[in-house]
Amino acid sequence: MTVSTEQKTANKHTGLKIVVVVLGVLLIFGFIGMIATVVYQVTHGKKHPEPAVGEQPGESLPVFGDVTVPIHQGERIARIQSSGNRLIVELATVEGNSRLVILDKTTGHVLGTISFPQQP
């Protein structure tokens, strides 16, 4: 019994057909998984936190009167930045020292300071 060339070629193609079918099935499952993930994200999406007081368009902060921010001799305001309900004031000196004064925008109170002294 001899195996013909056609049968050998058919046996080689059988392995290739199995690989193609397996890869096709993986591709289909990949697409199903991707579509399921998109549907899940749309239905259970990330909830956005409530905006802080004064962050809604047209909403103003409550009035809290005059506030005095302590600035030491030789300091100057280098930068002011707003972040949520916080106002961050960076104070700097000519010598290179700096500190941050953190204020609550809703009450005007100084919440704290962070100093950055220059090291020798």
* Quaternary organisation: single chain
How do the strands of the widest beta sheet line up side by side? 1-2-3-4
Low-confidence stretches: none
Q: Which overall shape is indicated by the principal axes computed on the Cα atoms?
A: elongated
Radius of gyration over alpha carbons? 34 Å
User: With helices defined by DSSP (H or I, 4 residues minimum), what is the helix count?
Assistant: 1
Q: Estimate what percentage of residues fall within beta strands.
A: 25-35%
Q: Roughly what is the average pLDDT, rounded to an integer?
A: 82
Strand tally, please? 4
Structural class: alpha+beta
Name the helicity range: 25-40%
Rounded to the nearest angstrom, the distance between the terminal CA atoms is 94 Å
Integer tally of domains: 2
